[in-house]
Amino acid sequence: MKKGIIIGIIGIILVVAGLVSYFAFSKPKITLLGGDYIKTELKHKYKDKGVSVTLNGKELDKNSYKVKIEDNINTDELGKYKETYNIEYKKKIYKIVRTVEVVDEEGPEINTNYEKVETDFCTGKEKVNLTFTAVDNGDGDVTDKVTKEKKEDGYYLSVADSKGNKTVKQVPIVKEEEPAPHIKINGTTPTYITVGDKYNDQGAYLADYCGNKKEAEVKSNSTVDSSKVGTYKVDYSTIYNDKEIKATREVKVVRKGTTTSNTIKGNKIVYLTFDDGPGAHTERLLNLLDKYNVKATFFVTHQYPKYEYLIKEEAKRGHAVAVHSYSHNYKKIYASVDAFKTDFNLMNDIIENQTGTRSKIFRFPGGGSNTVSRSACKGCKIMTQISKVMESEGYYWFDWNVSSGDADGSPTKEKTTNNVINGMKNHSNAVILMHDIHKSTVDAMEDILKFGTENGYTFKVLDETSPKIRHKINN
Ligand code: ZN
Fold this sequence. Notes:
six-stranded parallel β-sheet; 4 domains; Immunoglobulin-like; 9 helices; binds zinc ion; 475 residues; four-stranded mixed β-sheet; alpha/beta; 28 strands; 24% helix
């Protein structure tokens, strides 16, 4: 009997232990990740950290339970909120709650236009102007509360919000890296010399970014042939820190009598210009100019082919030869940009044949302000178009500011002389329009040249460096 009781008691103990363990170990354990109290910053998005669910110390498969969260968290308002998790596992609901407090513990955010302030390598001057804004999650815009302090290693911007949360932002001040040195050319580029003169290269040197001369051998390679009119190059190069540094000088070998910006002297400057030739009176004009040793500019045409050989003579005697027009037929040349260029190039071909060089300079037939071109190309703003194209191709054009009047009505020697001399007196740079196809014009030249040379005027020819005396384009 006793034995039976003992067995009975053991049996009961086993059943109770089994039940206890069944209930104890079949209930999942829920843990709040991040704890039962979480702080979250005002106006920032609240991110739930979640829970972990375990059974007998083992993580449960996420698909074996469902989580539903109920909360009333408002991150726009300071305060404490409840976040309740309802976990459904094996048809049973388990609840767990945590407190979420919305706090303001962050200082304002400072934004700057640059993350660092670079200073110029040579001058030490700051290369940028540092500006900033500041916004606080509680107080809004607090830019006007920011203080800016400059210390050796940078700017310190600081600001606090109304809760006392402080932000300091450092914007470092850094010296810019030394920029690479460069080759500095002595004198000017382009350098002008007169044909036949000896060319002495003024050289070049290596300079650091601040302009100080650096010890380095600069090699040069010149293509200059001073016996021929043209544009040449002198290339300079050196090796610095295994890198090649280069520069180029342009050398312009110009005709005798060509004056450039390098050689301006005297007070009043006169540019005698002759259009529409060469013609029957051109040779006599050339002889007169020689007599006074004055150089002029000829805007030539193909209107009198029999005298074309004089273009060569004009260049030979040191005058400037420039393009006027091949046909001088307004209707034809102003019909389109292409028509203009065709006519222009035909004339420049002749010039090249005669002188060996094409001209970069021209004068529009009728002048830049002419309106005759309007009917040649209706509504197409032809003068604007042509001048744009020609300028973009490196051509220079000139009008005049003194008209001799020798193309108006019936010109006389006296009228022409008076107009020209008055014009010379009234302009510091007189570009005078004349036509060497008129006898009266050439007749007037002796008095004009005499007056000019006796009264200290400087006669020059037009080139790329001359003042751009031009009329207003009208169409
Ligand atoms: Zn003309």
